[in-house]
């Protein structure tokens, strides 16, 4: 019998991808399933990167590239960061890989030794803790609830840092809440981090262009604390703003020593990122600004439409998102009740019944480290969201 490693035995399936698979299975059985789970735009990849991908195939741009990505693409990423955030990176300080998720994975692999701690605040993206564990690290989970507006405070961050702390990992705008850190909040966190030079900072910026306050890009920690540049990793990719989820293309900018290690790690694992995806992303970075503006306008409209619909369910409380495309819904008043003699104890119970009986797939807050909530993606049409919320209202009305 094949013996699996301890790592394999402890490995957890991605909760969101598991739910996507379950929703598809129910749909294959003929059910009208509405999936609000996966963080994937419902609009197509923009015209420019799509055509560039076709061009890459037609022109034979289909061979291996450097493990860190083509020089042309890294230069374009450098220019993008300079334009959006105001600071410069050389191509040697940038690496491109098969998705922003793999970028985070590689960064953790290169930062963590066995027993090192990585600070993550709740609610978090479902994959953070497992990726830390796969790097032999220890997720140091900091509970941040409604009182903290679901964001880590300087006091909580200071309390969490110790001699074993290797990194602080956070996402703004947040998956799953859609909330973002203000410049003032980032400045306060920076003051804490400045006192602990052994702590690396991983800033997951994948949603930083999908912001709803009229600005072009979300506030960034390096804008208020440029002195932290030498220990900060910026993570981004094509998946969200450019709707290139299936192209699997992401990048990191950071200290050359770490970026070089990440690129070497990539060379020994995934090899080089897809040449076709790189060529497509290059076009997207150059000419898709208008497309992104249209997408943001669409998301703002969907946000307000969804909030209005959700307000019809008095048992729900919803944090108004400032970016990304998620509703973070407080369902605590629904827990402890029964549905057809079944006790609904947890957010998982609630979401399981919602999927199995009403065919609406959502992500339970427990998977994000915060019980009593659920995450809904509003990267779907207003009509689809409206139908989903009607089913939720019917389900909640059946609770006794």
Automatic annotation (TrEMBL):
Native organism taxonomy: Bacteria, Pseudomonadati, Bdellovibrionota, Bdellovibrionia, Bdellovibrionales
Name of protein: Pyridoxal phosphate-dependent aminotransferase
Pfam families: Aminotran_1_2
CDD domains cross-referenced by the UniProt entry: AAT_like
UniProt GO molecular function: transaminase activity
Domain Aminotransferase class I/classII large: 32-391
Protein family: Belongs to the class-I pyridoxal-phosphate-dependent aminotransferase family.
PANTHER family per the UniProt record, alphabetical: ASPARTATE AMINOTRANSFERASE (PTHR46383)
Cofactor: pyridoxal 5'-phosphate
InterPro entries: Aminotransferase_I/II_large, AspAT/PAT-like, PyrdxlP-dep_Trfase, PyrdxlP-dep_Trfase_major, PyrdxlP-dep_Trfase_small
Source superkingdom: Bacteria
Key words of the record: Aminotransferase, Pyridoxal phosphate, Transferase
């Amino acid at each position: 019998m094949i013996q699996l490693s301890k790592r394999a035995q402890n490995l957890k399936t991605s909760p969101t991808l598991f739910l996507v698979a379950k929703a598809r299975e129910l749909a294959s059985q003929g059910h009208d399933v509405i999936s609000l789970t996966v963080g994937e735009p419902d609009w197509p990849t923009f015209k420019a990167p799509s055509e560039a991908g076709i061009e890459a195939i037609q022109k034979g741009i289909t061979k291996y590239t450097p493990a860190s990505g083509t020089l042309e693409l890294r230069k374009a990423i450098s220019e993008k960061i300079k334009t959006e955030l105001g600071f410069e990176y050389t191509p040697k300080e940038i690496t491109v890989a098969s998705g922003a998720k793999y970028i985070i994975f590689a960064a953790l692999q290169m930062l963590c030794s066995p027993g090192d701690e990585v600070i993550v605040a709740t609610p978090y993206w479902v994959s953070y803790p497992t990726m830390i564990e796969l790097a032999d690290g220890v997720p140091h989970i900091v509970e941040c609830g409604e009182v903290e507006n679901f964001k880590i405070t300087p006091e909580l961050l200071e309390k969490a840092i110790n001699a074993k702390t290797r990194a602080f990992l956070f996402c703004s705008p947040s998956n799953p809440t859609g909330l973002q850190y203000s410049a003032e909040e980032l400045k306060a966190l920076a003051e804490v981090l400045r006192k602990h030079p052994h702590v690396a900072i991983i800033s997951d910026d994948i949603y930083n262009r999908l912001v709803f306050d009229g600005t072009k890009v979300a506030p960034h920690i390096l804008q208020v604390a440029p002195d932290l540049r030498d220990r900060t990793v910026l993570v981004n990719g094509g998946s969200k703003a450019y709707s290139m989820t299936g192209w699997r293309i992401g990048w990191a900018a950071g200290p050359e020593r770490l970026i070089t290690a990440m690129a070497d790690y990539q060379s020994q694992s995934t090899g080089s990122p897809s040449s076709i995806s790189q060529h497509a992303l290059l076009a997207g970075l150059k000419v898709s600004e208008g497309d992104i503006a249209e997408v943001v306008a669409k998301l703002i409209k969907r946000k307000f439409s969804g909030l209005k619909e959700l307000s019809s369910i008095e048992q729900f409380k919803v944090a108004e998102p400032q970016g990304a495309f998620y509703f973070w819904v407080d369902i605590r008043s629904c827990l402890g009740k029964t549905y057809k003699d079944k006790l609904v104890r947890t957010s998982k119970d609630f979401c399981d019944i919602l999927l199995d009986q009403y065919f609406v797939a959502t992500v339970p807050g427990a998977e994000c480290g915060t019980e009593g909530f659920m995450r809904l993606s509003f990267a779907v049409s207003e009509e689809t969201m409206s139908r989903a919320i009607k089913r939720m209202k019917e389900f909640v009305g059946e609770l006794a």
